[in-house]
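Quick log. Single chain, no ligands specified.
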Amino acid sequence: MSLKFASGGAVMVVLLALVISVLAQTPSESDRARRAALRMVNARGIPEATLPCTPEEAKWWQELRQAAKAVQETRGGKREKRKYLALLQVGQEKSYQLPIPDQGALVLSRSEPKYSEAAMNKQIKGTIALVLELRPDGYVGEVEVVQGLGYGLDQNAIDAAHGTVFLPKVKNRKFERFLLPATMSFNVY
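-> predicted structure:
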């Protein structure tokens, strides 16, 4: 009987050591927050190629990443946007396989809506709810106003939405259409 107790005690010691080891490896709340903050910063850019691809695809992807970074740095500069969209078009024309795993669409730059004269005169403020169609070619397609404000602000929000620059949704190594819910706010100061 004492042998069973001794081996049972040894099992308890091993289990206790495993629990302590697991607890010691469990990340603290501050560690999790730090990693989440880094993911947020890195999520703003187009990821590096991590899947096998041809040398031509790798070169194209690197150029696309650089063009996307330029779009972000210039907040949607016209020349940078044109270059980025042209590179997306090249990838589609050549049927390149994307060298990254599946991911959602990534907004690189947004245009701010303009106030209309009528809305300013009436001191209209509020938020417009929209749904944007993000097409695989990098252009915004249809824009639906789910909840508007009128006074020309809805159309101004649609116009601004069409200025959105993004990396399309990636699924099975191809760009895919995605519906993006969005809001645009108008405030009077």
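The longest strand covers residues 126-134.
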